Task: inverse folding
């Protein structure tokens, strides 16, 4: 690496550290309220007592929603988010606002609860490892933080229907010959604590030296400093990393399925049903596709939205 290249990468790392340091204060980000037409008919599966599919959620039913009423009376929806995952949930260093795909979904839910006002959000910035704890402790109403749905997590919390599908890939230096995770044997690969990404790295790829960091940005800083050789994570997250670092690239095919859902406390099923109604409307009226194009267009044109799968009772 030339001296100039090293200095440029060091500057990027310093900027990222500053961004992470700013991630503790809550913020409210303006956004236009989406249209709210009737929800599209979702796919259905038989109700089951066991978790056979981590993407199966509770169908919207239009019934009483005491949790939603309590949130409305409080005047704000409290949400757990990332402030350092570019394109998904990150603090804009110029405006100070938290923005991204996850954040726009939360704005749509705010608009549905508060009569069209998308800005009734109180953000709590959390790490990946804190996502379950803040929900089981009822410290937040919702968590939207690149949150993969699986049966193990359903044991302690509930999820909305799937609202974004991602896949695990790897990010390496621009001059690396690696074409995927299988080419990284003996190399140091970083993933954040408390993620399915880190668990899969440790259990499925023992030939790789797994390195953990508190956050995705922590992994990127280690990468910038040369302390790890690669980062593994969801393609939606790595796209943001590559946008921040001109000396990095995302390689390989996805080697996992990462269905994202919005986390909700297990005893607040009425809130899950309400959120699913909002997601179904976003998928049906074009809001979901417009949000995808706005934030994740670098991955290609917006795909067909994930199908909502219902059957829990």
Result:
């Amino acid at each position: 690496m030339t001296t100039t290249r090293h200095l440029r990468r060091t500057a990027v790392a310093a900027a990222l550290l500053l961004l992470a340091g700013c991630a503790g204060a809550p913020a409210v980000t303006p956004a236009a309220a989406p249209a709210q037409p009737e929800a599209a008919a979702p796919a259905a599966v038989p109700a089951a007592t066991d978790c056979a599919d981590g993407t199966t959620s509770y169908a919207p039913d239009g019934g009483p929603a005491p949790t939603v009423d309590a949130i409305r009376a409080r005047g704000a929806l409290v949400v757990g988010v990332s402030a350092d995952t570019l394109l998904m949930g990150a603090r804009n260093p110029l405006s100070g606002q938290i923005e991204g795909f996850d954040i726009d979904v939360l704005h749509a839910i705010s608009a549905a609860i508060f009569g069209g006002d998308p800005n009734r959000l109180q953000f709590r910035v959390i790490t990946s490892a804190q996502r379950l704890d803040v929900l089981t402790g009822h410290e937040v109403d919702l968590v939207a933080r690149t949150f993969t749905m699986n049966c193990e997590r359903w044991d302690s919390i509930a999820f909305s229907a799937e609202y974004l599908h991602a896949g695990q890939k790897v990010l390496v230096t621009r001059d690396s010959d690696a074409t995927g995770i299988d080419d990284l044997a003996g190399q140091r690969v970083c993933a954040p604590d408390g993620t399915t990404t880190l668990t899969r790295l440790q259990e499925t790829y023992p030939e790789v030296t797994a390195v953990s960091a508190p956050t995705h940005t922590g992994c990127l800083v280690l990468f910038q400093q040369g302390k790890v050789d690669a980062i593994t994570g969801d393609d939606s997250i790595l796209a943001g990393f590559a946008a921040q670092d001109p000396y990095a690239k995302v390689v390989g095919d996805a080697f996992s399925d990462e269905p994202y859902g919005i986390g909700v406390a297990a005893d607040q099923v009425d809130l899950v049903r309400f959120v699913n109604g909002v997601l179904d409307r976003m998928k049906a009226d074009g809001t979901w596709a417009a949000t995808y194009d706005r934030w994740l267009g670098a991955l290609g044109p917006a795909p067909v939205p994930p199908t909502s799968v219902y059957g829990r009772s």
Remarks:
- The first helix runs from residue 3 to 21.
- The chain is about 35% helix and 20% strand.
- Residues 67 and 271 are 6 Å apart (CA to CA).
- The mean pLDDT is 86.
